[in-house]
Amino acid sequence: MRRNLFLLVLGMAATDGHSQSPSPRRDPVLDEEQALAAKVEARAHINDFDLNTKVPKVRIDAGPGLSFYDMGTGNVVHEERWEKLPAPIQATFDQWAEYAGDQPSGKQLFREMFHRFFLVHELGHWMEDQVIEQRRDKMAATARRNAKTARWEYETIANRISIAWWREHDAAYLAKLIKDFRTIQAKLPNPVPAGEDARHYFGRQYSKLAKDPNAYGWFQLHMVILAYDERPRSGFQQAINKLPAENYDNY
């Protein structure tokens, strides 16, 4: 294709002899997510386990799913930005912020939850799946099979990893977030039918619950609070060191 030489010369003169293309616009949300992910990934070294880490991509494209890790189609952590959330989901977070009482807006609560805590939670899933895939011990096949259905344990382990991370890197942030989680969860209706075990019910009804923000939110907040209250507390390294021994059968 022929190029307009006159315009090309003008462009070269304007840049002192160096042709420059416009620099891409920065995405502050993606930059923030990637910077945090890089810090966590740099610590993803498990004692006595030769983990061949395949660093995941971070994309801001989760849609109504808000936050999830997908190993099967590209090893990607998917997050979302507030402005892209459907109006009903924004309204849910606005209501939750009112319940919390110390959050200025649903947008701020969403950012505190998903751009920080649940990003590390998804990286916890990344480490879980990498370890499950690479295990070669006698229980490896059992762990791989169980992890497909042990929803409660799978989520709890990721919560433990995120909690351990934030205890070490911003304990004040974590304590405030858990305080808000307790207040919000107390306002939400308990979706567990009388006489049902919460763990079993969550596993059986996972797909149905995922369609109800308050019901699924109740469970996620509940699981985070339980993991936070566990004793003894694990540090981040201790939490990830346990991954090769997790068989996902405690549900």
Can you put this structure into words, describing what you see?
With 251 residues, the chain is mostly helical. The chain is 58% helix and 5% strand. It has one domain (28-55, 86-245). Strands 1-3-2 form a three-stranded mixed β-sheet, covered by helices on one side. Strand 2 (67-70) and strand 3 (76-79) form a beta hairpin. It is globular. The protein starts with a helix and ends in a 10-residue tail after the last helix. The model is unreliable at 1-19 (pLDDT under 50).
Individual helix count: 11
Low-confidence spans: 1-19
Bulk shape: globular
- The radius of gyration computed from the alpha-carbon positions, rounded to a whole number of angstroms, is 22 Å
| Helix fraction bin | 55-70%
Structural class: mainly alpha
- For the residues shown, what is the average pLDDT? 89
Question: How many β-strand runs?
Answer: 3
- Biggest pleated sheet: 3 strands, mixed
Biggest sheet strand order reads 1-3-2
> How many structural domains?
1
- Range of strand content: under 5%
Q: Kindly, what is the distance between the CA atoms of the first and last residues, rounded to a whole number of angstroms?
A: 64 Å
Q: Which sequence of SSEs, written as H and E, runs from N to C?
A: HHEEEHHHHHHHHH
List keywords for this structure.
mainly alpha, single chain, disordered N terminus, 251 residues
Which SSEs are present, and which pair or pack?
Layout lengths: L4 H10 L13 H15 L14 E4 L6 E4 L5 E4 L7 H14 L5 H29 L5 H8 L3 H19 L1 H17 L10 H7 L1 H4 L3 H17 L6 H6 L10
Parallel strand pairs: 1-3
Antiparallel strand pairs: 2-3
Helix pairs in contact: 2-4, 3-4, 3-7, 4-6, 6-7, 6-10, 7-10
